[in-house]
Backbone:
């Protein structure tokens, strides 16, 4: 085994201006990763909320090996392949009724681009060529490619490219928990949904093609959950103006929130769905757009979907996807995510009782976050200079726990950290995670004088 310390390593392949060189990873199993010096870390964020079924799953690895022995690449214009057909059928069975057409890609940004481009080509095919605007929310993250970045609400990521891309209209994410008004949560849900209608009217309803949102927020909002009233109202508004509703389930999908899709908690019926991350659980790069035939057929009849990627429907990636879905079923991982999510959320709430600078604990299943504040009553954020979210991540890392963090929320910035272990996590492992979180928060409070 090569054992090179991080200080000896040349920086040539690293684009990141890393504050902290991370060690070389050696191996991984279950919820754990080991570096080349033999140190074990708990993967408390499933990578970037990717490794839903945990590391080193033997059945998935064996299925991939079997596929590797047969064929790893056959171009889609030359051959269909069985894993892609199986995976499309299995995905459609798990998606809302009518989502029967699956278009494979290799990641989340590609899945979002595909939704946007199918929506546009559908509008052209049905004679609505004036529709092209895709409204999204701020803050949000939908990917790094220029089209996905246009709907991403994260200025630091999109500003450098503003002359080169089309910035799409944004409405605020439904940060109802921050509001200090006399409305109930359900009234706030309606208030935030109605902002979509206001934006549609301001933009000109005939020019609006789609609205894209994460049903349960990811890293950009810290597992933001809108009030129940938000979802039916959004659907109603989209229907009223003939606008397609795109659900970005790249992070919230494939069981992470305790249902197959985040939107399933509200029985949502979007028009297009973007999937990735947990779809092949990090065993291979894989993503997908799911669409109903009623949108796909006019596009095909008008000459075909003018879009595609070389690796779309790759047999090895799809074989990994099939095996991942089988393992999710065999091990009952969606139910486990729901159950363990409740346990972990309860632990985070207990930590918030101990540490008054935790102002909010939120999320569903194992997509959970805690937000730091300097005052719980007003939800005033901590000063930016403290860099509390990054210190939290680094101090947890020193203690053997990987978590994820950001400093974004509504109109005002705020620090949050996400705890999203693989869906195989056990009660005992949640105990270890919360014990490290407790130590880390104590050290953070001492260091930042919170
Ligand atoms: N959409 C959401 C909600 C995401 O969280 C991400 C990535 O974090 C993406 C899209 C982009 O996915 P990828 O990085 O695989 O391109």
Residues:
């Amino acid at each position: 085994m090569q054992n090179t310390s991080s200080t000896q390593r040349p920086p040539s392949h690293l684009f990141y201006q890393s504050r902290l060189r991370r060690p070389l990873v050696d191996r991984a199993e279950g919820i754990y990763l080991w570096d080349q010096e033999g140190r074990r870390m708990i993967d408390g964020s499933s990578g970037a909320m990717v490794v839903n079924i945990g590391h080193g799953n033997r059945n998935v690895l064996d299925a991939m090996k079997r596929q590797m022995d047969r064929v790893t690449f056959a171009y889609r214009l030359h051959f269909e392949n069985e894993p892609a057909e199986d995976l499309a059928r299995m995905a459609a069975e798990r998606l809302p009724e009518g989502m029967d057409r699956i278009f494979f890609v290799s990641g989340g940004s590609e899945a979002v681009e595909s939704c946007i481009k199918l929506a546009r080509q559908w509008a052209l095919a049905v004679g609505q060529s004036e529709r092209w605007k895709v409204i999204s929310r701020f803050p949000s993250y939908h990917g790094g490619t220029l089209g996905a970045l246009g709907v991403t609400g994260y200025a630091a990521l999109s500003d450098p490219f503003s002359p080169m891309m089309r910035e799409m209209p944004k409405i605020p994410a439904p940060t109802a928990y921050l509001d200090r008004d006399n409305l109930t949560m359900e009234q706030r849900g309606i208030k935030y949904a109605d902002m979509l209608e206001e934006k549609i009217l301001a933009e000109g309803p005939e020019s609006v093609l789609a609205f894209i949102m994460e049903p349960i927020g990811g890293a950009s909002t810290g597992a933001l959950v809108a009030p129940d009233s938000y979802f039916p109202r959004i659907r109603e508004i989209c229907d009223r103006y003939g606008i397609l509703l795109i659900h970005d389930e790249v992070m919230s999908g494939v069981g992470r929130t305790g249902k197959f899709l985040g939107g399933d908690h509200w029985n949502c019926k979007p028009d297009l769905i973007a999937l990735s991350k947990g779809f092949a659980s990090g065993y291979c790069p894989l993503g997908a757009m799911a669409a109903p035939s009623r949108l796909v057929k006019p596009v095909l009849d008008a000459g075909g979907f003018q879009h595609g990627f070389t690796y779309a429907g790759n047999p090895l990636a799809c074989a990994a996807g099939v095996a991942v879905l089988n393992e999710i079923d065999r091990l009952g991982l969606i139910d486990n995510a729901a159950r363990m999510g409740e346990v972990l959320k309860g632990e985070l709430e207990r930590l918030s009782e101990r540490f008054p600078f935790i102002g909010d604990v939120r999320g569903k299943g194992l997509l959970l976050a805690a937000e730091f504040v300097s005052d719980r009553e007003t939800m005033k954020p901590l000063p930016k200079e403290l860099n509390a979210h990054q210190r939290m991540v680094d101090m947890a890392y020193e203690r053997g726990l990987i978590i994820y963090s950001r400093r974004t929320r509504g109109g005002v910035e705020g620090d949050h950290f996400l705890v999203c272990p693989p869906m195989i996590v056990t009660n005992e492992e949640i105990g270890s995670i919360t014990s490290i979180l407790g130590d880390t928060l104590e050290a953070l409070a001492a260091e930042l004088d919170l």
In short: Residues 48, 107-109, 112, 141-143, 214, 218, 248, 250-251, 276 surround pyridoxal-5'-phosphate (CB under 6 Å).
